[in-house]
């Protein structure tokens, strides 16, 4: 089956006064129908830039240097701004961390969602539009939806505003929803409610989701597959069970160790990975995680490892997976040598 989205060897940079920031370096992945793909990684790993590249929302300094982004087989690289406007909202929708910045404070929310519907279908009557907004408010479980149509954004709580954003994103029945940390700014209990809502919507609507988060706990609840990013690269890709049960990258193992326990204060990390992320203006020639990795050998600092296929849809780039990797102290001893280079 043709994937909804297929990204191949994507490279995205920003021009800054200190030099070229190589934010995304050769990212490839697919999103198939009905899948929810999580992108996880620490701050600055390139998660948002990957998703903003898909929508071509990189601002004046950002540039896709090479690669291919296909939506249902149709190449998006090279599309004009006007063509991209047709794709954004209608075929790919996006929700962000802070809904307040995306809502107009002076216009009632019902009207804003209505405008979104109208922007993509000018033939729709006023009555039809109102009915559709109500239907969307009900879908995202906004209580007393008729009353709420006329409310302004500031009259909503953070969680309710995020529901409005989700309603807006769903207005044009997109094939793909990109959610970039949509619950990070919310209280823990509200976060859970929004995640539950997204789970329910997944079942109700036939829509694929690209879900960006730094929280592997959220990934466990929502995603079918995970991409683990670091230093602008995908370090590991795996199905949800494999990532938790058979992680094949020391960075993924570090992230798993840093998940807060179920009953711990969420702000307290269990065991953060020591060290800091790489300089993306002068990215290291070897594995970007090597300086922080307790398994790193000389080769790790010198050369980027190739991807190895560990099992179906499970790949990882780590020199410890090579057949000639040292067996002593190797976390993947005996497993890695089976993985073919891809
Ligand atoms: N407009 C920009 N100009 C210059 N550099 C940028 C710009 N946007 C992002 N970057 C850089 O690109 C890299 C990747 O950033 P990105 O926003 O994708 O990280 P992220 O994984 O989404 O992190 P976070 O979890 O903090 O949101 C970082 O080094 C960041 O500083
Ligand atoms: Mg981000």
Give me a quick take on this structure.
By secondary structure, the protein is α/β, with parallel strands linked by helices.
Give a structural overview.
The chain has 342 residues and is of the alpha/beta class. It folds into two domains: 5-91 and 174-275, P-loop containing nucleotide triphosphate hydrolases (Rossmann fold, 3-Layer(aba) Sandwich), CATH 3.40.50.300; 106-166, no CATH class. It is 31% helix and 23% strand. The chain contains twelve helices and 13 strands. It has helices at 47-55, 81-87, 99-102, 109-120, 126-139, 145-148, 158-170, 188-204, 216-222, 240-245, 250-257, 298-302; strands spanning 5-16, 19-31, 36-40, 62-71, 74-75, 92-95, 176-180, 208-212, 225-230, 233-239, 308-311, 314-316, 340-341. A nine-stranded mixed β-sheet has the order 6-7-8-3-9-10-12-11-13, with helices on both faces. The protein has a four-stranded antiparallel β-sheet with strand order 2-1-4-5, with helices on one face. Helix 4 (109-120) packs across helix 5 (126-139), helix 4 packs parallel to helix 7 (158-170) and helix 5 (126-139) packs across helix 7 (158-170). The longest helix is centred in the middle third of the chain and has 17 residues, at 188-204. The mean pLDDT is 90. The structure holds adenosine-5'-triphosphate and magnesium ion. Magnesium ion binds at residues 47-48, 180.
């Amino acid at each position: 089956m043709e994937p909804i989205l297929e990204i191949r060897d994507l490279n995205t940079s920003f021009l800054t006064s200190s030099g070229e920031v190589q934010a995304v370096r050769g990212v490839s992945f697919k999103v198939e129908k009905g899948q929810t793909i999580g992108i996880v990684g620490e701050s600055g790993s390139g998660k948002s830039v990957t998703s903003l590249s898909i929508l071509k929302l990189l601002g004046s300094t950002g540039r896709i240097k090479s690669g291919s982004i296909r939506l249902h087989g149709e190449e998006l690289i090279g599309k004009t701004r006007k063509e991209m406007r047709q794709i954004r909202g209608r075929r790919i929708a996006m929700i962000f961390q802070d809904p307040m910045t995306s809502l107009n404070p002076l216009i009632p929310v019902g009207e804003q969602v209505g405008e979104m519907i109208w922007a993509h279908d000018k033939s729709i009557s006023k009555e039809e539009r109102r009915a559709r907004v109500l239907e969307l408010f009900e879908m995202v479980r906004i209580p007393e939806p008729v009353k709420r149509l006329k409310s302004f954004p500031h009259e909503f709580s953070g969680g309710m505003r995020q529901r409005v954003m989700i309603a807006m994103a769903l207005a044009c029945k997109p094939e793909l929803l990109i959610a970039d940390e949509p619950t990070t700014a919310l209280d823990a209990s509200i976060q859970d409610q929004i995640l539950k809502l997204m789970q329910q919507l997944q079942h109700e609507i036939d829509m694929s989701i690209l879900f960006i988060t730094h929280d592997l706990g959220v990934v466990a609840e929502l995603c079918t597959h995970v991409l683990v990013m670091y230093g602008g690269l995908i370090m590991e890709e795996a199905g949800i069970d494999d990532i938790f049960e058979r992680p094949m990258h020391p960075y993924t193992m570090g992230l798993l160790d840093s998940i807060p326990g179920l009953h711990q204060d969420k702000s307290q990390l269990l065991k953060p990975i020591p060290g800091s992320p790489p300089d993306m203006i002068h990215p290291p020639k070897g594995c970007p995680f090597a300086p922080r990795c307790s398994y790193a050998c000389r080769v790790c600092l010198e050369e980027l490892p190739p991807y190895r296929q560990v099992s179906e849809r499970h790949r990882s780039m780590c020199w410890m997976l090579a057949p000639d990797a040292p067996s002593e102290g190797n976390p993947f001893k005996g497993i890695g040598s089976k993985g073919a280079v891809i």
